[in-house]
Amino acid sequence: MPFGDFDFAKMFEMPKQMGEFKFAAVDMEGVVATQRKNIEALAQANQLAVESMQAIARRQSEIFRSMMEEASSAMREVMAAGSPEEKAAKQTEIVKDAFQRAVTNMRELAELVAKSQTEALDVVQKRVADSLDEIKTVIAKKK
To answer: How far apart are CA 5 and CA 2, in angstroms?
Structure first.
């Protein structure tokens, strides 16, 4: 016999033996309600993140469209300038203005992203705090 003296029939007696152990009563309705709240909070945080990313994408599109219009206008202005010195001066002015707008746009987008992350994180943090309070309440009831 390759398994020695092992009695396989005893394996099936384990459930009977496990029945002798006493387990603490678990409030399954409370557990389910807590998990439902956790899932709802995650869904809400996800929804906020999706909406924010859509708003950011729209704003990026607006910025890009505006940038293309400004580039086209700038090109016309440079071409309309008279002497090479006037063209160089106009190009310098346009580049300076474009750089300042780019920095402003990057700052705006960074603020939108930070706001989005903060809003989603606030939902999750609130749920974690509420969850811990629920656990404290359940433990207090057991005592």
So the answer is: 9
